[in-house]
Design a protein that fits this description.
Blueprint: E1 7-14, E2 26-30, E3 34-39, E4 42-47, E5 56-57, E6 60-63, E7 75-82, E8 95-99, H1 101-118, H2 120-142, H3 147-170, E9 175-176, H4 177-187, H5 190-202, H6 208-226, H7 232-244, H8 246-259, H9 262-266, H10 278-296, H11 313-359, E10 385-391, E11 397-403, H12 409-421
Antiparallel strand pairs: 1-7, 2-6, 2-8, 3-4, 3-7, 5-9, 10-11
Helix pairs in contact: 2-3, 2-11, 3-4, 3-5, 4-6, 6-7, 6-8, 7-8, 8-10, 10-11
Amino acid sequence: MQSTEPNFWLRCRFDPAPVSPDIQPILQVSGDFSYELYLNGHLLGKFGNILTGRHTAGLVHQYSAAEFSDRSRPFLIALRMAVYPTNYDLQPLPQLTLGPSSVLRDQHTAWISRAVAAKSVIWFSYIVIAGAGLFFLALYLFDRFQALLLWVSIAWLCLALIRISEFLVTASIPIPSAFEYLCYSVGNTNGIATILFFFALAGRPVTPFFRIIAIFSLASTAPLILVPLFPLHQAMAIRWFLDVSPQFFSLANSASCLACLAPLFAFWPLNKISRNQIPIFLAGSFWMLINFLYMGMQFPGLPLGTSDYLKLQPIRSFAMALEAVVMTILLIQRIRATNRQRAMLAGELQAARDIQQLLVPAHIDSAPWLLLQTAFLPAREVGGDFYRCRILPDGSQWILLGDVSGKGTAAAMTGAMLLGAA
């Protein structure tokens, strides 16, 4: 079900007559929400904060009362719930069960096992994706000149964050509800990192069109990250508009689908792609095609059920895990090639530095009445500074000082040419 209100009531009538007289039944309540529990109009218990909606996800509660053992008449259970739209725009109803305490706990444990096993492919796939993200984040921390490592690690870790929170809730592992939704909100920013990654991979600046898409994605997801800090009424209004309302959802989903075109535009024109970039372009395009199909199925108005796209999730998860492995191999090959080029360049720069040091005068020709001292310390391996000192026939001192604009090899070569001309 969907709700635009911060609270709603759920009422259930229980008839304990069929329960064996030898059993002292209890009421078990499970679900990801905060609530107040009423028995025949009287408060029986509460969980979480009904005003803010904050609670601890993954907990199951059992309640006992004398009315549960009275087989002569039914009783009314009413739940006042604080509702948030969930990850898939739906608020699942709580599970209310009457029976023996040990049996109910065993049944709940068995249900958790089945729920976790049903999505085992998804969990395993995202473990692989998260591992790849952490691997590239570690590489970036050791080599911060390659920004593409940072962007691909953020893209994959954001994707994994969403599934991590889902797994914790499915496995009934207690976590704060604010953390659960924070993972979901941050995870939805992965499209921004994906755009930055593909343009960094192609060695090109982000085009204005994709810059607009990235800014829009940031503007539409940043407020969601702050939602847990707002009171429940304001939080619900923000979440409903940004995350559930069909109009804005269609706009945001369109931006996400357009972001999937990033590899095509980053490497355009395709006939100019170098041979060593073709495998990584194809792998990235496959990654984006999977995302495009997954998000395209979520557009309102399509002849699909509201959750039919979830049937694609195991296939998408496995394909993306395979994609992460392939992309990791290709990026490692690229990094090794880049490091070899750096090593060669470092050797050439060291040779240039040694040659430039030979051009630095070993002896300062200065007049007896003048004390001259020099220091030659280029900002990089080589620089554009140069000098010469001579005593002219009339005994005066001649000093030549030069500083070529810029730094590096170009400035050093110009300086050497000017020094030779001088």
